[in-house]
């Protein structure tokens, strides 16, 4: 993954270009830690050679896994990076396009790039904190934290 700062303020804008074989979520979290990101949002387009998406099952309080074992276009990938405790955590959703024009979407659990993923990331000057929501068991953005 390569990165370039496009703007430094008041909101910092960073372009990230992922390459074939890059794992999206771990690399985004690694980049967030290395660059002290705490309140970011991002969007992306590109393509993947495979992914695992999730659909949150409210009753089980866990994700149903949706394997995507084929080359797909990333039609939309949106998310945020917020602090969960003192660690930046990525939360992303995607809509992926298949060869026949059908789509599949959900929470991004795993995604492997092929050939590229182009991400525009915007870091806000404030902090976003996540706290554990007791009802769902999920770490959710807490505006008041």
TrEMBL record:
SUPFAM superfamilies assigned to the protein according to its UniProt record, in alphabetical order: AF0104/ALDC/Ptd012-like
Chain ranges of the PPC domain: 8-144
CDD domains found in the cross-reference section: DUF296 (cd11378)
Gene3D superfamilies: Hypothetical protein, similar to alpha- acetolactate decarboxylase, domain 2
Coiled coil regions, renumbered to chain: none
Highest taxon of source: Bacteria
Record-linked Pfam families: PCC (PF03479)
Annotated protein name in UniProt: DUF296 domain-containing protein
Native source species: Acidovorax cavernicola
Lineage of the species this protein comes from: Bacteria, Pseudomonadati, Pseudomonadota, Betaproteobacteria, Burkholderiales
């Amino acid at each position: 993954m390569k990165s370039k700062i496009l703007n430094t303020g008041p909101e910092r804008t960073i372009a990230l270009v992922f390459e074939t074989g890059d794992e999206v979520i771990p690399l985004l979290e690694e980049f967030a830690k290395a660059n002290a990101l705490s309140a970011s949002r991002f969007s992306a387009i590109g393509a993947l050679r495979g992914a695992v998406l999730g659909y949150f099952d409210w009753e089980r309080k866990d994700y149903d896994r949706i394997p995507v074992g084929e080359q797909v276009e990333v039609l939309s990938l949106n998310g945020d990076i917020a602090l969960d405790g003192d660690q930046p955590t990525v939360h992303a959703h995607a809509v992926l396009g298949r060869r026949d024009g059908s789509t599949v979407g959900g929470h991004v659990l795993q995604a492997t790039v092929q050939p590229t993923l182009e991400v525009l990331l915007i870091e806000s000057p404030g902090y976003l904190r996540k706290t554990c929501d007791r009802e769902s068991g999920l770490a959710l953005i807490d505006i008041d934290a």
